[in-house]
User: Fold these one by one.
Assistant:
Number 1:
Amino acid sequence: MSKSLLLTTLLLATSSTAATKPEFAFVPDAKTAIAIAQAVLVPIYGADTIRREQPFSAKLVAGVWVVTGTEDCGDPSVHRCPGGVAEAHIAKKDGRIIAAFHGK
């Protein structure tokens, strides 16, 4: 087989399979987003703070995972705790950390 025929065959095979693959994302699901967020938030706010805000939840909004901690005031009747919770925004497609902060 000639080099040009081999190259053409490889190009055709690659282009035809690429169209059938789903869009690739570095952060494909909520579990992955939460793991990344915790890895970013612990060095900033400390392991104890992040542990107290478990469980974390993640919601996909316009291609960005919004990961937030859970408020725990120690009293189920209290709906807003002083200090807020940690939050991270992570791009689904490439895993960029768009924002990391803690509510007040």
Number 2:
Amino acid sequence: MSKEKAITEINKRTEREAMDLPETYTPTRFDTFPEGALTELTRYADFNLWRNELARVCEDQISDETQRIAAGELLALVGDPRINPLYPTLVKVPGAKVGIGTEM
């Protein structure tokens, strides 16, 4: 299939079809997580240390990919200590002139 034809066909698809997702919501294994189980985890004194260790595994390029994914999924459930919505980490990006699009 030519590139032009592939682009045309993908533009006729819904966003979910283009990403190979079902058209409606599909429950995950986490949707049946026991009620209150995550709240129970926070009672442990080392809960924040555990979250920090999960964050370290996510960022560790030497860790196995499956371990990094599992750590990220757990952080999505219990809260990632690296993310603070009230005081987000910002990065200064220097200004520059850039070309956008294919006609350059």
Number 3:
Amino acid sequence: MSDPGRVSLSGPIKMRILYAVKGRVRMRWGDQLEFSDEARPGDFIYVPPCVPHQAINASPDQSLLCATSKKMPKAARHDPQYGLFA
């Protein structure tokens, strides 16, 4: 669950699939996060391997709930710099 306006940054992953359950999620991606799109409940977003991306709660007043699946390189799974856990 994400509070309104909250931003989530991602470390090095091989890929991510995000499913919007509640609220609106804005996904930015690209080397400079120059591309963006929004997903509403029932929508999927696929992020290809090793593409920098950022998920943002696009609603100013509604919480966001998403289901996500990601595959990370083994070296990143326990890297305290990214706070990732296997």
